[in-house]
Specification:
Helix content: 25-40%
Bound molecules: iron/sulfur cluster
Number of strands: 33
Shape: rod-shaped
Radius of gyration: 51 Å
Oligomer: single chain
Strand order of the largest sheet: 11-10-12-1-13
């Protein structure tokens, strides 16, 4: 029963697939026609299919109208063609394979230093012509070791190869040039190597071998040649229908491979047809063994493994990726999205992490971001452990908080930890740089939680500490009233709040702080007590004001008449407030012009009255007042004669002393209101 063995490394290579994608994208966008400088690939059917969609292969640049769109093939083009296209004013989409671009760049750089460039390959191949065109006339192409041996004795030439060149031939050529101390760079594309190696292995073990691809494709012809050397019954076909002309034996083991420019569709068609012919669908996938290709040059190449961090040199930059030479047999590709910074240029040395040694298309996949992320994670975890603050930038408002970028890592800040106060509009933090404290990390879940509030709290605590250090008990400091409560007023004294208790607001009795101060009022206060443990500062406003009793002796002269307010009535008299904190007493005998039974017959609490100062004793804090004498004096003054005064006031002759108990002007201290007495601390 025949068995099919299908090569894994068959069909479009990375470069051709990429060029094809460029053309198809333009066609999808409605660009018509899309020109290519010559066929995009060496497969007539695939080229025809593209032509049907509006792709035109044109070798002659003068036939391409200005303004048209031209895609450069994966092989690349000559420098002069590039310049001619530019002069013609066409839009160029460069789909040159990054591996080819790299060879062009190396050739350009070496010839710029005046060195010879030797390209091992077919001098008529577009890729080789493109490379030679960039050598300032210092390039040579050789396809055999004999040709190489005939070259003049160049000093330290650069030796590169066509990407699809046969590896064994390249080694022979290098050997032939060894005496010239060449700089040898193996630029054979790994895709080609892999394809050829696998095809040879399959061919060796097969009774018949089928190579699918265009007959004008150099790499398909080379593939055919290699397979034929191992399996005499090797057939080169372009389409599945050609299988009808081949006779297979029932017990044949049949291998199938395809050149780099063979579309997947054609290859699949061949495989399907083979299955139909043999009525057998037993397909064995090949194993990727790599034993028969170990050249001396390869042995000098570095070994790489996924996860390894290596340093490489940027050799090519395209719109989507950066090609990096890491010393491996094939270059690595870093997608732009995997770069930590797009600020890279050719020649830069960058650290990269190997993501995959082979992405399935022969490319080494690299990432720069992985390294940065790893370093960032380490830094974030360290900051989390040490409590050190990190910088972050608000990126996006999400449900329940804000996402911030911290060293390239997304960190979540819950809304409650964004500020010291409630945040209404989280959006306002987007784009804002802020200091953050890392409060939770979970690398496995890629979770970082941060707090801005913790930073603000720490800053506030620092500020407070600094302020506290400047404060001393007994100091008079300036402040602003911030808040009033029933028990006092909170005053901001330069960043910290202290409390003025209601009893410390005034020398007088105060019902509510609003009777003395108002919010935002600037006032001077005295620091009574500092309690850092409890974070409390006791202040006094009244201590900054003069004590009423200290000046009472000068202010209230016996014999003068002043205005006061009745604030309290007792059996034998009334207390009259002359000013906040300073009360005097009117004995019942001095409350009216006539004799009264009780004080309320003359005055009531709240009355504003005129009183005469009888005596002032600042030591005992007593002021004796008289309503009666004030009335008499004022009446006397108004009538202006003593007789008028006598007529006006029929004064009861009964002496006050006889009616009232011995009631000196001074109200007894025990009865006097607290407000009239000096506070205990005085
Ligand atoms: S064979 Fe290699 S170098 Fe050539 S186009 Fe394909 S991927 Fe690029």
């Amino acid at each position: 029963m025949p068995q099919l063995r299908i090569a894994k490394n068959a069909g479009f290579c990375f470069g051709v697939r990429r060029a094809m994608a460029s053309v198809e994208r333009l066609l999808d966008e409605g660009v018509r026609p899309v020109y290519t400088l010559g066929p995009l690939m060496h497969n007539p059917d695939a080229v025809k299919a593209l032509e049907a969609r509006g792709c035109v292969s044109q070798e002659d640049i003068s036939q391409i109208p200005p303004g048209a769109t031209v895609v450069l093939r994966s092989h690349g083009v000559r420098l002069e063609d590039e310049q001619a296209l530019s002069l013609r004013g066409v839009r160029v989409v460069d789909a040159t394979c990054p591996f080819v671009k790299r060879i062009q760049a190396m050739a350009e750089a070496a010839s710029g230093e005046g060195r010879r460039v030797i390209v091992a390959g077919d001098r008529e191949h577009p890729e080789v012509r493109g490379v030679l065109s960039r050598t300032r006339g210092l390039g040579e192409a050789v396809s055999t070791p004999e040709e190489a041996a005939l070259l003049p004795p160049f000093e330290r030439p650069l030796v590169v190869s066509q990407t699809t060149f046969r590896p064994s031939r390249f080694q022979e050529i290098c050997q032939a040039l060894r005496s010239r101390d060449p700089e040898i760079v193996n630029t054979i594309c790994l895709t080609t190597e892999d394809r050829q190696r696998e095809a040879v292995e399959i061919a060796r073990e097969s009774d018949a071998m089928i190579v699918v691809g265009g007959r004008n494709s150099a790499n398909t012809r080379e593939l055919f040649r290699l397979c034929e050397a191992k399996c005499p019954r090797t057939y080169h076909i372009e389409r599945a229908r050609e299988l009808d002309d081949i006779i297979f034996q029932p017990k044949d083991h049949i291998g199938i491979t395809a050149g780099a420019s063979t579309p997947d569709g054609i290859f699949e068609e061949v495989v399907t047809r083979m299955s139909d012919i043999e009525k057998q669908e037993q397909v064995t996938e090949t194993q990727d063994t790599s034993t028969d290709f170990a050249s001396a040059i390869d042995e000098t190449l570095v070994q790489i493994r996924p996860g390894q961090t290596i340093t490489g040199t940027v050799v090519q930059i395209t719109d989507d990726e950066v090609c990096v030479n890491v010393g491996y047999k094939s270059d690595g590709l870093v997608k732009k999205s995997d770069l930590s910074s797009t600020d890279v240029k050719i020649g830069d040395e960058i650290e990269v992490e190997v993501v995959k040694v082979n992405d399935g298309e022969g490319n080494v996949l690299l990432s720069q971001r992985n390294i940065v992320n790893r370093k960032s994670w380490d830094a974030i975890v360290a900051a989390s452990e040490s409590g050190e603050f990190v910088k972050g930038v608000g990126k996006e408002a999400v449900k329940g908080g804000l996402i911030a970028d911290v060293m390239g890592i997304r960190a979540f800040i819950p809304a409650s930890l964004l500020s010291l106060r409630y945040v209404e509009k989280i959006d306002e933090f987007v784009g804002q740089e802020m200091d953050l404290k890392i409060i939770e990390t979970d690398k496995a879940k890629k979770r970082v939680v941060a707090s801005r509030k913790a930073v603000l709290q720490a800053e506030e605590a620092e500020k407070k500490k600094a302020i506290w250090e400047t404060l001393h008990e007994g100091d008079i400091v300036h402040g602003i009233v911030r808040r009033l409560t029933s028990f006092g007023a909170f005053v901001d004294i330069g960043g910290v709040d202290g409390l003025v208790h209601v009893t410390d607001l005034s020398w007088a009795r105060v019902g509510h702080p609003s009777e003395v101060v108002s919010v935002n009022q600037p006032i001077d206060v005295k620091i009574l007590k500092l309690d850092p443990e409890r974070d409390r500062i006791s202040l006094s406003y009244k201590a900054t004001l003069p004590k009423p009793w200290d000046v009472a002796g000068e202010k209230y002269i016996p014999g003068t008449i002043v205005t006061g307010k009745v604030v309290r009535i007792i059996d034998y008299g009334a207390f009259v407030e002359l000013e906040p904190g300073l009360d005097g007493m009117v004995h019942i005998s001095q409350c009216a012009l006539t004799r009264i039974a009780k004080v309320e017959d003359a005055v009531k609490v709240g009355d504003i009255i005129r009183v005469k100062i009888l005596s002032v004793d600042t030591e005992a804090k007593r002021i004796s007042l008289s309503i009666r004498q004030a009335l008499e004096d004022e009446a006397f003054e108004s009538v202006n004669t003593p007789q008028d005064a006598a007529d006006e006031f029929a004064i009861d002759e009964q002496p006050a002393e006889a009616e009232a108990p011995e009631a000196p002007e001074a109200a007894e201290p025990a009865e006097a209101p607290e407000a009239a007495e000096a506070p205990a601390e005085e």
